[in-house]
Design goal:
The chain is of the alpha/beta class and 514 residues long. The protein is built from 17 helices and 17 strands. It has helices at 2-7, 20-30, 43-52, 69-78, 97-105, 118-155, 158-166, 186-192, 196-199, 202-206, 214-227, 272-313, 325-354, 366-376, 400-416, 448-451, 472-482, and strands spanning 13-16, 37-40, 57-61, 87-91, 110-113, 171-175, 181-184, 231-238, 244-255, 261-270, 362-365, 385-389, 395-398, 423-431, 434-441, 486-490, 499-506. The strands form 4 sheets. The protein has a 5-stranded parallel beta sheet with strand order 2-1-3-4-5, with helices on both faces. Strands 7-6-10-9-8 form a 5-stranded antiparallel beta sheet, sandwiched between helices. Helix 3 (43-52) runs parallel beside helix 4, helix 14 crosses helix 15 (400-416) and helix 15 (400-416) packs antiparallel against helix 17 (472-482).
C-alpha cells in the first residue's frame, strides 16, 4: 500500500554552481537518491527556478561571480515561500570560524567544505529529502481525511443525515452559501430551548452567545466567509436554564465537484469541564502563592508586636516592675489572640472544605446575639457608630459561637472599610418563618468585578493594606450554609457607595432557603 503512495511524491533538489564540472560531480553523488536534480549556474538562475517550484533542499556554492552564494541565500530567505527551504553551502575556501558564522547567519542549514566525502554529502541531502517527502505525505493524508469527511456527508441522504446528527453529543448546524442557517440539530435546540423555527434564525442563535464573545466571533466569521476558510474558536453558549458553558466551535466550508463553495457545516463541542479543570488548577496555584504572601504579611505584624511586648514584660529577678507593665501585657495578649484567630480561621477553612464543621445548635435569640456582637466593638474609634435594629423574639436553631463568628466578621469588615464617623446599620427582621439580618455600611463598597467572588477563599475587595487573609467571608458562607441559610452581598460598585450583606436563617429546624 505504501509503494504507490511514495511513487506519487517527489523531492527535487536544486544544485547551484557556476562550474559545470562541479555540477556533474554533484549529480553523480546524488543520483542514487532517485530524485530530480535541477541545475543552476548562477544566483539569478536559481532564483528563477524557485519562482516556478518548490525544492526539498538547495546545494549552493559560495564563490560565484556577480551574485555570490551568501547574497543568493539572503534573497531566498526574503521570500515567504522559500524562507524555510534548507540550504547547504558548498565552499573550497575560507575555513575560518568567522566565515562559517556568516554562512549560518545567511540562513544555512548546513555547511560543507570541499573536497567533501560523497557519502557524507549524500546522507545530509537524503535527510532533507526524507523530511520533505514525509511532509508531503502528511499533507496528502490530511487532505484525504477532509475529502473523505466531505464525501461521506454528501453521500448520506438528508433524512438519514439529520437522524444521525440529532443523536450526536455535539451541536451541529448546516449553513447555506450566504451564511443563513438551513438546519440545526436536536441537541442544540434542546440545549438552548429553541424551536426548529427559532433554530434557523440568526437573531435567536446570537442571543444564546455570551455578549462578550459576539464581536470576536462575528469578525472571525466574516473573514471565514470572505476567504472560504475553516473557522475554529472557543465561545460561551447559554442553555435554557440561563447559565453559560464553554464550547469549541468549528466551521468548515463544503465545496462541490468544481471546487465551488456549496455551504458550511458548523459543530460545537462542550469543553466547559476541561476548561474549568485547567482554571481550577491555575487558580489553586495562584491561591497558594497569594496565601503565602498574605499569611506572611498578616502574621508578621502581631508576631513582632508580641516579641516586643514580651521583651518589655520580662523582669529579671531582683528588679522593680518597669513602668507600663500592664500596658505591655495587654498588648501581648491582644497580639497573641490575633495570631490565634488567624490560625483558627485557617483550621475552619479546612473543616468546611472537608465537611467537618460541627455545630451545637440551640434555640438562639438573634436580637440578643446581635446586641452582644455590637458590644464587642465598644468603644468605637474615629467617631464610628453602630445603629442596632434587632427586636427580641427572633429565634433560630443555631450554634451561638459560630453565628457570633459570622456577624462579628461582617461588622468588623463594615467598620474596616468605613470612613471616620461612619455609620453601620445592624438590623434583623422576620420574613415568612425565616430571620433576615442585614449589615449595612456606607464605606468603600465592592467593585462590580469582585462582587461575585467576594465569598471565595483568599478573595479581597480591596488591597492588602486593609489587612485580613481573605478568609472571613468564605468561612461565614460555610457556617451560614451549614445552618441551612443563605448569605450574599450587594453593592452599587462605585467607590464610597457602601455595601449590604444579607444573612437569612431558617426559623424552624429543617427549613432552608436556597
Amino acid at each position: 500500500m505504501r509503494a504507490p503512495e511514495q511513487a506519487t511524491f517527489h523531492a527535487p533538489v536544486l544544485l547551484v554552481d557556476d562550474n559545470a564540472a562541479n555540477l556533474l560531480a554533484l549529480e553523480a553523488v546524488l543520483e542514487p537518491l532517485g530524485q530530480r536534480l535541477v541545475r543552476a549556474t548562477s544566483g539569478p538562475e536559481a532564483l528563477r527556478w524557485l519562482l516556478q517550484e518548490e525544492f526539498a533542499v538547495i546545494l549552493l556554492d559560495v564563490q560565484m561571480p556577480v551574485v555570490d552564494g551568501f547574497e543568493t541565500a539572503r534573497l531566498i530567505r526574503q521570500r515567504q515561500r522559500t524562507r524555510y527551504t534548507p540550504i547547504i553551502f558548498l565552499t573550497a575556501h575560507n575555513r575560518d570560524e568567522a566565515h562559517l558564522v556568516h554562512g549560518y547567519a545567511m540562513g544555512a542549514a548546513d555547511y560543507v567544505v570541499k573536497p567533501f566525502h560523497p557519502d557524507v554529502l549524500r546522507w545530509k541531502v537524503e535527510a532533507f529529502v526524507g523530511l520533505y517527502l514525509e511532509q508531503q505525505r502528511l499533507q496528502q493524508r490530511e487532505s484525504t481525511l477532509w475529502e473523505r469527511e466531505r464525501r461521506m456527508l454528501e453521500q448520506q441522504g438528508e433524512l438519514r443525515f439529520r437522524r444521525m446528527v440529532d443523536t450526536m453529543p455535539q451541536f451541529v448546524w448546516e449553513l447555506l452559501v450566504d451564511g443563513t442557517i438551513g438546519y440545526a440539530n436536536r441537541g442544540w435546540l434542546d440545549y438552548a430551548g429553541l424551536s426548529p423555527e427559532q433554530g434557523r434564525q440568526w437573531k435567536d442563535t446570537l442571543r444564546c452567545l455570551h455578549p462578550e464573545d459576539v464581536p470576536a466571533l462575528r469578525s472571525a466569521w466574516e473573514v471565514a466567509q470572505r476567504e472560504g476558510k475553516p473557522l475554529e474558536r472557543e465561545c460561551r453558549l447559554r442553555r435554557s436554564a440561563g447559565d453559560y458553558r464553554w464550547f469549541l466551535t468549528r466551521t468548515i466550508p463544503e465545496r462541490d465537484e468544481r471546487g465551488q463553495l456549496a455551504g458550511w457545516v458548523s459543530t460545537a463541542t462542550d469543553i466547559d469541564d476541561a476548561r474549568r479543570a485547567v482554571e481550577t488548577l491555575r487558580a489553586a496555584s495562584e491561591a497558594k502563592d497569594m496565601f503565602l504572601t498574605m499569611a506572611a504579611h498578616e502574621l508578621r505584624t502581631p508576631l513582632q508586636a508580641a516579641r516586643s511586648f514580651a521583651h518589655l514584660a520580662t523582669v529579671r529577678a531582683g528588679e522593680t516592675v518597669p513602668e507600663g507593665m500592664d500596658k505591655a501585657l495587654h498588648g501581648l495578649h491582644r497580639s497573641v489572640n490575633r495570631m490565634a484567630k488567624l490560625v483558627e480561621n485557617l483550621l475552619d477553612v479546612g473543616r468546611i472544605q472537608r465537611g467537618e464543621l460541627h455545630l451545637r445548635p440551640s434555640a438562639l435569640d438573634v436580637g440578643a446575639l446581635l446586641r452582644e456582637v455590637s458590644a464587642h466593638f465598644e468603644p468605637l474609634p474615629d467617631g464610628q457608630r453602630i445603629e442596632l435594629d434587632a427586636p427580641e423574639g427572633l429565634v433560630v436553631p443555631g450554634d451561638r459561637e459560630r453565628l457570633d463568628q459570622v456577624f462579628t466578621n461582617l461588622v468588623s469588615n463594615a467598620l474596616r472599610y468605613s470612613p471616620e464617623g461612619g455609620r453601620i446599620r445592624l438590623a434583623a427582621r422576620e420574613e415568612g418563618g425565616r430571620v433576615h439580618v442585614e449589615v449595612v455600611d456606607h464605606g468603600l463598597g465592592i467593585p462590580g468585578g469582585k462582587l461575585e467572588h467576594i465569598f471565595e477563599r483568599f478573595s479581597r475587595a480591596h488591597g492588602i493594606s486593609y489587612g485580613g487573609l481573605g478568609l472571613g467571608l468564605s468561612i461565614a458562607r460555610g457556617i451560614v450554609e451549614r445552618h441551612g441559610g443563605r448569605i450574599w452581598a450587594e453593592s452599587p460598585g462605585d467607590e464610597g457607595s457602601g455595601s449590604t450583606f444579607h444573612v437569612v436563617l431558617p426559623g424552624e429546624p429543617g427549613t432552608s432557603e436556597r
